[in-house]
Amino acid sequence: MARRNVPGLAVVDRYERKELDGVALPGTVATLRLDPLGRWLLARPAIGDSAWLVDLPIKRHTGIVPTQWHADLPAISPDGMLIYRRGKDVVSARPDSLSDVGKVTNGAADLWVLTSWLPRGVVASPVSTASADSGAGGTGAEGPLYVQVSTSQNPEWSGHLADDLTRAGLAARVLPPQHPDDGYRVVLGPYATREQAEATGRRLGRPFWIYQPGQ
């Protein structure tokens, strides 16, 4: 949603309706488009034909590409590429650097549908095979303790989120369910003490909670 005092987006507590944080943008936003894995956000300005890129894990506006908005494009593909129209062509670019990686000449007139192509059923990041209470670096009087940022019943989604956090400089991994009603936990750690875990969590700039296996 729009920020109250400056142009940009606000991070709002959905329960208390309080503005917690935000991302500054060059102007007012008319449309938002989220990528399938929640890493990148595309914002359409109220004036002009362009797309503003927001890196959600670090909550930062990282770039602008001139392009017209349609029902299909611009968008982030399932493999994390920015797909947008440039004149009569359709371009694929890395969203972090905006460097081109591919182009379809005269493709702008077509309707585009972006989908995963996994002919061998490969998942992005495997679930950790180590037990949740392993890791010498995280054992101690209180540990092991983890900084948990997400839980989901979808292991592939959790694996992609762990990959995105790792690319952002956070060594994340996925812990498998310990009980039938558990989900796949995306975590950082383990840490030996709650103080160490909470210090890491506060540096994330995003919601987190402390997970201790067996508790």
Strands side by side in the biggest sheet: 3-4-5-6
The arrangement of helices and strands along the chain is EEEEEEEEEEEHEEHE
**Structural class of the helix and strand makeup?**
mainly beta
Gyration radius, in Å: 20 Å
How does this structure look, described?
The protein has 215 residues and is mainly β. It has two domains: 8-104, no CATH class; 136-211, Sporulation related repeat (Alpha-Beta Plaits, 2-Layer Sandwich). It is 11% helix and 35% strand. The protein contains two helices and 14 strands, in the order βββββββββββαββαβ. The strands form four sheets. Strands 3-4-5-6 form a four-stranded antiparallel beta sheet, with no helix packed on it. It has a four-stranded antiparallel beta sheet with strand order 7-8-9-10, with no helix packed on it. The longest helix is centred in the C-terminal third of the chain and has 13 residues, at 155-167.
Care to give the gist of this entry?
By secondary structure, the chain is mainly beta.
Blueprint (SSEs and pairs):
Layout: E1 8-12, E2 19-24, E3 29-34, E4 40-45, E5 50-55, E6 60-66, E7 75-76, E8 82-86, E9 89-93, E10 100-104, E11 145-152, H1 155-167, E12 172-175, E13 184-191, H2 194-204, E14 209-211
Antiparallel strand pairs: 1-2, 3-4, 4-5, 5-6, 7-8, 8-9, 9-10, 11-13, 11-14, 12-13
